[in-house]
Design brief:
There is one protein chain. By secondary structure, the chain is of the alpha+beta class. The chain has a domain at 12-135: Aminopeptidase (3-Layer(aba) Sandwich), CATH 3.40.630. Helix content is 31%, strand content 35%. The protein has helices spanning 27-36, 49-63, 109-131, 146-154; strands at 12-14, 17-21, 72-78, 81-92, 97-104, 136-142, 158-169, 172-182. Strands 1-2-3-4-5-6-8-7 form an 8-stranded mixed β-sheet, sandwiched between helices. A hairpin with a 2-residue loop joins strand 1 and strand 2. The two termini are 31 Å apart.
């Protein structure tokens, strides 16, 4: 297991769920899920094996050695099987906040979207509020998945902002919603 120099603790658990530093072996699963879910991601084109390998080698690998990386990514495991990935991105170390990023195995979305999101957030909040002592974490989401906002509210997140007509999607401008949670 690779370790982040920026963290004392490397794994964050809730029941049978665990965040572990992003594993190289999960990169093609992640690529598949990102390509399947491109409609709600800030990703302009389908990923290829070459692009995914380059991203892991040139962007992800150096993060492990940085004292204050701009992102900290994890494989999200259930009973030791990778079912998603995510972490903190666009980290602002001065203001102690970061954006939450998460996607799960596309096949699990219909049956366990709410549970997987909730368990991911429980694990991630241990990192953000416990380990890093951040003040705020937030989710930046295109207004395309109303079921996501219910899950966020159930987990103590509040609607912080609505950016009107902020992104261009399938020939039309869509709003972006920002949901946030503050350290208790």
């Amino acid at each position: 297991m690779r370790v982040y120099n920026a963290l004392k603790k490397q794994e964050f658990k809730a029941g049978s769920y665990c965040l572990t530093p992003i594993r190289h072996k999960d990169r093609y699963k992640i690529m598949k899920w990102r390509n399947e879910q491109i409609y709600h991601l800030r990703q302009n084109e389908l990923l290829t094996i070459d692009k995914q390998d380059a991203y892991f080698d040139n962007t992800i690998a150096p993060l492990f050695n940085e004292e204050k990386p701009n992102q900290i990514l994890f494989s999200f495991l259930q009973s030791n099987e990778c079912i998603g990935y995510g972490g903190l991105v666009h980290i602002n170390w001065i203001d102690r906040n970061a954006e939450v990023s998460f996607i799960m195995n596309t096949q699990l979305e219909e049956a366990s979207f709410s549970k997987n999101w909730s368990m991911f957030l429980k694990c991630l909040e241990q990192l953000a509020f416990g380990e890093l002592e951040f003040h705020k974490i937030f989710i930046y989401a295109f207004d395309l998945r109303p079921h996501l906002y219910d899950v966020l509210e159930l987990n103590g997140y509040f609607k912080d902002a609505r950016l009107k007509h902020h992104c261009f999607f399938q020939g039309d401008f869509k709003d972006v919603l920002i949901y946030s949670k503050l350290m208790n």
